[in-house]
Write a structure and sequence with these properties.
By secondary structure, this protein is α+β, with helices and mostly antiparallel strands.
């Protein structure tokens, strides 16, 4: 199962776990209250997985590709890693399914504190449109992930502050309803 926790305030290497002391774990229900959805799947059968197909159909994830993030495979690796780790939001859900390797998604809670979500092989996550977040690899420096979209992919990230976007307003309203 996915593991998540509140982060410390250290500006040290973002690829480290950065667990707050004392430890403050975060459960799936708390993530759900932030609009973050999670499934554990068998990544070895992603090409013919009825569970993945069911999720894709139910959530209208019609487009997908696979990205490998490591120095040898991703052009402009250092620049892309800086970009992924800069706090931002998207106007659409961000959906990632880890097929191999591992990394971290960080999301903001209601009080604007960082929660780190450790992602590894078989983890499928949906971050809702409008949530401030960022991504980094862990110390293994490798992840292969499926990216899923409703319709054509939109890659635009809006760095914080981006509160004027309708997607952010809808997300803030969702948080108010689930409080």
């Amino acid at each position: 199962m996915v593991e998540a926790w509140y982060m410390d305030e250290s500006a040290d290497d973002p690829r480290r776990p950065h667990r707050a002391e004392p430890s403050r774990p975060v459960g799936l229900e708390q993530l759900r209250q932030l609009g973050v959805l999670y499934w554990k799947l068998d990544a070895d059968k992603y090409e013919n997985d009825p569970e993945l197909e069911k999720i894709r159909k139910e959530r209208n994830y019609s487009w997908m590709d696979i990205i490998t993030i490591c120095k040898d495979k991703l052009p402009n690796y250092e620049e892309k890693m800086r970009m992924f780790y800069e706090e931002h939001l998207h106007l659409d859900d961000e959906v990632r399914y880890v097929l191999d390797g591992s990394g971290y998604f960080d999301v903001r809670d209601r009080e604007d504190k960082w929660i780190r979500i450790s992602m590894e092989k078989g983890d499928l996550i949906t971050l809702p449109a409008g949530i401030y977040h960022r991504f980094t690899l862990d110390e293994k420096n490798y992840v292969k992930a499926m990216r899923l979209f409703v319709g054509d992919p939109v890659w635009t990230a809006y760095t914080r502050p981006a509160d004027h976007f309708e997607a952010r307003g809808r997300y803030v309203a969702f948080l108010a309803q689930t409080a």
